[in-house]
Amino acid sequence: MTCMNMNTATNASSRTAANAAGRSTRRSRALRRVLAATSVTALLSLTGLTGLTAAGASAATRNVYVSNLRGNSVSVVDPITGTVVATVPVGSFPFGDAVSPDGSQAWVVNNGSDTVSVIDTATNTVTGTISVGRLPQTVAFSPNGARAYVGHFISPGVGGVDVIDTGTDTVITDIPVGNQPAGIAVTPDSSRVYVADFVGTQVDVIDAATNTRIATISAPGARTPNAITISPDGAHAYTANFNSSNVSVIDTATNTITGLIPVGSGPGSIAVNADGSRLYVANENANTVSVVDTATFSVIATIPVGSVPTAVLVDGGTVYVSNATGNTVQFIDTATNTVTTTVPVGSVPIALAQAPAALPPVVTGVSPDHGPETGGTVVTITGTHLTGATGVSFGATPAVSFTVDSDTRITAMAPAAASVGAVAVTVTTPSGTSAITAADQYTYTYVFAGFLSPVANVPAVNHSHAGQAVPIKFRLGGDQGLNVLAAGSPTATRVNCATGMPVGVPTPADSAGGSGLQYDPGTGTYTYVWKTLKAYAGTCQVFTLTLNDGTTHVADFQFS
Question: Where does residue 14 fall: left (phi above 0), alpha (psi -120 to 50 degrees), or beta otherwise?
């Protein structure tokens, strides 16, 4: 499972020698500061050891993964019991981490090893190691799970983002960005990657389709963006600007900063809640968490927490905060904005991650939206959060079969129905069953294969004498009763014989002798004897048969 960036193998020896002295000096100085419980802020400013922003939510596993910078380990915290359920040894100086969208893996960036440790969340063991660029600092997954992005240091003034194919765990490209990428966030549709560059005022925008930088966002009042998160609707990105003690509001449509929100001193991490209404900002110098109302872009609460809060994560009604010099993770109740639980973890906890939201499925379209009541129609179901579907139903009846093509598409075969009419197509996953909406309606129709002799089907034109009785015959796949006609059906409409355009309004197409619709069980045939009018002479008429399943069937006539 271990793989290497193609430059890693050839440059490993020379790079190790060249970087050893600087690396050792920076880290030993940093660690002395941490162990002395002095300014970890200075440590973070010098080395870029910043916390990963992770917008957590429900998942099959509710565990929170805590990177312990000084402990070279990850603490696995059960948020239900408030206890550490596992401690996982990883590489040197871990501080960036993220959990895959399906919740199966936790990836931990090891700044001292130039690697990513891959943790199996089912067993909480390291199952693989991925070599990445020099001095990696942060990692984020695309919501579709296809890519992971690792920010790292290339050379003074230049940073890079390694793009990793999560199917093969290989680095497929390295995108140059600004100086010291400290935070990465991906838009909900996985199309754009936003990178906060700690040294300077720059935020880079990467097109995920082309793996190229397409925009650079900066402002003098937004110095040292240290972390970044994106609103659930993708409309805004928010950065925690460490040396400006504020939060940038970025309009993702224009990639411009539209506002700056003052918060506490030294904001180092930021997270947004599930509905996008609140931001939670960890202020490292102030030992507080600021709560921002995104409707007014103002701080509505300031919560005292432990010493040097370096990372913040929000999941439903709980906010998690890691305290670097306190070696703890604290739980905050979002209803009261108070700390309710303190959990001891490893040495210098500096980042938090949790699986993203396991949202219930949503059906947004069904194509085709109708089919015969005998079933067998292959239907494409579109929507969101369809991955992991355990069932597809057409009304109280399961699909004959179905295949999950992607998170946004399922192919299913419609089952037979007991009667015609509209039913809801629903999808069930471990997270729930899709709500019924107008977009998920599928209509079962009669098995109508066309009119029978002596009537020819369109585009043929039937020639008849005005005033003659015309037997309109058809089959519906068996005896469906005599109430199969819609109200007011059938009708006749005069049309232009050359163009086929209506020149009159529909009028009742009466039956001969008022006989109405008849059914012959021997042949399975319905017959409606249309008593045409003598006034039809020299005209063209369209006979329209509308059934109570909502379908309409027509035949063209020219009368002499």
Answer: alpha
Question: CA-to-CA distance for 184 and 179, rounded, in angstroms?
Answer: 13
At 179, list the tokens. 């100086």
My answer on whether omega of the bond before 430 falls inside 30° of 0, hence cis, is no
Query: What single letter denotes the amino acid at residue 315?
Result: D
- Written as six digits, the tokens of 187 are 């838009």
Q: Which pLDDT score, from 0 to 100, does residue 155 have?
A: 85
495 SS3 class: strand
Q: Is 157 left (phi over 0), alpha (psi -120 to 50) or beta?
A: left
Tokens of 302: 């300031």
**What pLDDT, in 10s, does the model give residues 329-379?**
999 999 999 999 999 999 999 999 998 767 789 999 999 999 999 999 999
For residue 238, what are its two tokens?
């928010």
The segments of the chain whose pLDDT lies below 70 read: 1-61, 357
By the 8 A CB rule, do 208 and 141 touch? Answer: no
Burial (0-12, 13-18, 19+ Cβ within 10 Å), 164: buried
SS3 content of the chain, % helix, strand, coil (to 5): 10, 50, 40
Q: What is the pLDDT of residue 357?
A: 67
Q: Tell how strand 309-315 and strand 318-323 pair up.
A: antiparallel
Using alpha carbons, list the distances in angstroms from residue 207 to 158, 169, 192, 414. 19, 20, 5, 39
pLDDT number for residue 426: 97
Q: Which long-range contacts (CB under 8 A, 24 or more apart) does 338-342 make?
A: 338/303, 339/303, 339/304, 339/305, 341/82, 342/306
Give the domains, in start order, of the chain with CATH numbers. Answer: 6-353 (2.130.10.10), 362-445 (2.60.40.10), 461-559 (2.60.40)
The whole-model pTM stands at 0.66
Two tokens at 327? 């070696």
Radius of gyration of the chain (CA): 33
CA distance 326 to 322: 8
| Distance between CA atoms of residues 355 and 422, nearest Å | 38
Return d(Cα 197, Cα 546) in angstroms, integer: 65
Distance (Å, whole) CA 274 – CA 130: 31
